[in-house]
Amino acid sequence: MTRQEFKSILEASGSRFVSVKFTKKDGSERTLLTNPRQVLETLGAGKSSDKVVTIVDAKIGQWRSVRPESILSVKVGGQEIL
Q1: Reported pTM
Q2: Is 45 a residue whose pLDDT tops 60?
């Protein structure tokens, strides 16, 4: 999946929750739930890489970076998209 494809899915989901299962950089798998319309304050001065999409993990209220090429599945409102 490309970065733009993933961002398009997030934008099209409206305010419905999106579940993303992906492979982390260390090889382990993570599933997180995000609401693309949720906005939290970002802390720190660093700039995110153009190779990742930064989203908020709704369960813990923290920012996470996802590499689109590592995405295994995406569900929007419980319906599998990928």
Answers
A1: 0.84
A2: no
What is the chain's Cα-based Rg? 12
Instruction: Determine the Cα–Cα distance for residues 80 and 41; give it in Å rounded to an integer.
Output: 29
Query: CA angle, corner 64, sides to 53 and 55, nearest 5?
Result: 50
Counting Cβ atoms within 10 Å, is residue 17 exposed (0-12), middle (13-18) or buried (19+)?
middle
Could you give the C-alpha distances from 58 to 1, 26, 36, 37, 65, in angstroms and in order? 22, 22, 10, 11, 13
Task: Report the distance separating Cα 74 and Cα 81, nearest Å.
Answer: 5
Q: Do 14 and 60 touch, CB atoms closer than 8 A?
A: no
